[in-house]
Amino acid sequence: MDENALRTQGVFSCLPGVVLYSVMSLKRSPYTPADFAWTQWSVADIAAMATKIIATEKTQLSALKQIPAAQRTFQNTVAALDLIQNEAQTAFLKIDFLMNVSPLPEVREATKEAVDVLNRELIELSYDEGVYRAVKEYAALGEVLQGPEKKLLETTMRAYRRMGFDLLSEVRTEVKENAKKRAELGTEFGKNINDWKDHIAVTRDELAGLPDSYIAGLCRDDKGKYLVTLEYPDFVPFMESAQNASKRQELADKNSRKGGEENLTILAELVKLRAENAKLLGYKDHADYKTEDRMAKRGQAVGEFLSGLRDGARPLVAKELLDITALKREDTGDKEAEIHYYDVAYYSRMLKEKRYDMDEQKIKEYFPLAAVKNGMFEIYQTLLGVTFTRLEGYKLWHEDVELYEVRNTDGALVSYFMLDLYPREGKYSHAAAFNLVNGHLHKTEGGEGAYVPPVACMVANFPKPIEGNPSLMSHYNVEVFLHEFGHVMHHVLTQAAYPSQSGFATAWDFVEAPSQMLENWAWEHESLKLLTKHHETGEVIPADMVEKLRKARLHMIGHDTMRQLSFAIFDFKIHTEPFGTPLKEVLRNTLIDLMGVAPSPVSLQPAGFGHMGGGYDAGYYGYLWLRVYAADMYTRFRDGKVLDPEVGKAYRQWILEKGSSMEEIDLVRGFLGREPNNKAFLESIGLGG
Predict the structure, then answer these.
(1) CA-CA distances (angstroms) from residue 24 to 82, 438, 441?
(2) Which of 65, 121, 418, 486 makes the best surface tag, with the fewest CB within 10 Å?
């Protein structure tokens, strides 16, 4: 949240005389099971920790404010402030994380209450006039800073301005209260989605078209019917392959209501508060406010980007809709049949198999989850010069969670990551990477330099392998795995000195680019040899099947691009235009206009659009914006270099290690050795010249 940028982008102390990107030579102390005891926090522990976070920060900020103006330095003011905020943020992140993954409903409820309290109290502390005065006192000294230190001070001062510190005190109070309300509503919005549970009950005959391995993984009710939930390991295959159209419709209708009416009310209030906040701070609209500290810099640039891409994709979408409509008419024998919202995935899959002689189920047989994970590890270890070792004896929040240690090939400790891959009640329902400890420099009691090893966790909802069902993954889910694990690597390989510049704490419209780029490893012959192992024969995927996959890569690319674009335009529209039309109607009209297919008539779709709860508001465009940079960066890995350690080393050094210690555009320039362009991106969506 921008109004709390000083906290969520935490700022951290640099050691005098230490060169920023030589931190690997500094000591990194291994973590012990005690360092992960937080994963077992009880309801009482969470309440106590929330109280401790607030009390500790108050004490530390009080000490910072008492430093005489003449004695202020970068270290004891700007860097010290960021260390204080990072300490609070780290504890906050752990509590928030447990809200998304804890198997215990009482813990999830306690974490939500704690997050609400912390959002209010920590925002209150971030508006401390005395702390702002302390930073201004240091800035007034006019000390010449370079590199990360210069960027850190500029970011800190800009964050204060964006919090309203240049405004009259009564206006600043309004901004602060607005921030508290938005934080609380955003938390509630996300929790409502995570807690939303629904399903359809189907007979064995109504599962026609789905493989035995899928059916074996479904739960059954007391009448013997199979339960298909809204979790994507159930939902996506059913929508793609179930021959029963009425059941596809029933499942799609239920999915479109995720979040419920309450979330529509919450989102409407959030949009209103965001517009009010932008006006109070002197911005034209929320989009201008949000883009100021991103690569786009202004809302107009986003609007022009979306409009241009929309116009380019329209002919592709129209052609694809005609193709799947023709296929439905052929399949049903109804010459007047039209495509409905519950048909798109089904006939898209059918057309792909027919046009490219592909059998999605046969492809899945080469992607058992265990083989994909092992192959992905080998790819990342080869490219990035690291080794992963699973650690035992650490009690975590669930028995399915795996903990790994990351070391350089010389044995030096780098960081840690965890994997929580399988669905369960109350868990975060999609796939994401969570930062839990931000890597940064600090001083030990003896005064020597040390580096805090970062920690991240990938959360997903892949089908759990069980006897007789090795969890065969779709090719799409292989891409998801590569993508989210790429985020983990971005965070845990950081060498940034300041945690606010650490890991994937980059500009919001760049943060997805490094991971988007790494999805390409799901398409290359060389890497697919590592990612595949037939669940029965152990053979790697045949070359002819890989070629079919590659030829089919542009299949429905117009639809996929326009769907992302529809949500981005909806997001941009509600955050730039006067508030009026009900949000579900805004999205419905946008989808009809751009996709050519009306959504479910019972849809509450914005209610389940989790990105709108906070973070991606007026920022969803970033998913498409960043693809320009992702596609361009990938050009360095072409022509047989997909597993080239030298190119991987450059990628690690320029893109993954530096975080946001430099402007993101300069990171891309440094890696490419030239100015970036959009040629590769246009080719990737079928619009290349």
Answers:
(1) 21, 15, 10
(2) 65
Own/partner pairs, 297-301, CB within 8 angstroms, 24+ separation: 299/572, 299/576, 299/618
Q: Is 484 a catalytic residue?
A: yes
Task: Specify the pLDDT at position 16.
Answer: 30
| Cα separation, 197 vs 423, whole angstroms | 12
Catalogue all structural domains in the chain, each as residue range(s) with its CATH number: 2-194 (1.20.1050.40), 199-255 (no CATH), 369-554+648-684 (1.10.1370.40)
B/e letters for 288-318, b = 16+ CB within 10 Å, e = fewer, are bbbbbbbbbeebebbbebbeebbebbeebbe
List 3, 240, 484, 519, catalytic entry: 484
Q: How far apart (Å, rounded) are the C-alpha atoms in residues 637 and 520?
A: 10
User: Inter-axis angle of helices 169-195 and 260-280, to 10 degrees?
Assistant: 160
CB 507 within 8 A of CB 513: no
* Amino acid making up residue 334: D
Q: Which amino acid is at 414?
A: V
SS3 of residue 11 by DSSP: coil
What angle is formed at CA 669 by the lines to CA 387 and CA 146, rounded to 5 degrees? 90
Classify the phi-psi angles of 686: left when phi > 0, otherwise alpha if psi is within -120 to 50, otherwise beta.
Answer: left
For β-strands 413-420 and 455-459, DSSP reports them as parallel
Contact (Cβ atoms closer than 8 angstroms) between residue 264 and residue 367: no
Q: Tokens standing for 475?
A: 């090719």
Q: How far apart are CA 93 and CA 461, in angstroms?
A: 21
Contacts of 607 (CB under 8 A, 6+ apart): 192, 193, 257, 258, 259, 260, 261, 262, 263, 264, 267, 584
Tens of pLDDT, residues 69-124: 999 999 999 999 999 999 999 999 999 999 999 999 999 999 999 999 998 999 99
Q: What is the 3-state secondary structure (H, E, C) of 437-474?
A: ECCEEEECCCCCEEEECCEEEEECCCCCCECCECCECC
CA distance 63 to 80: 10
The secondary structure element, H or E, covering residue 200 is strand 199-202
Q: Helices (H), strands (E): how many in the chain?
A: 26, 10
Sign of the dihedral through C-alpha 406, 410, 411, 413: negative
pLDDT per residue as tens digits for the range 636-650? 999 889 999 999 999
User: Closest Cα to residue 440, out of 425, 461, 454?
Assistant: 454
Phi, psi of 550 (to 5 degrees): -65, -40
Most distant CA pair in the chain: distance in Å?
85
Percent of the chain exceeding pLDDT 70 equals 95
Looking at residue 445, its pLDDT comes to: 59
CA distance 232 to 427: 13
Full DSSP string of 114-166: HHHHHHHHHHHHHT-HHHHHHHHHHHHT-----HHHHHHHHHHHHHHHHTTTT
> What's the confidence (pLDDT) of residue 139?
96
Residues of the chain falling short of pLDDT 50: 1-21
CA distance 553 to 560: 11
Q: Quick one: angle between helices 622-634 and 299-332, nearest 10? A: 90
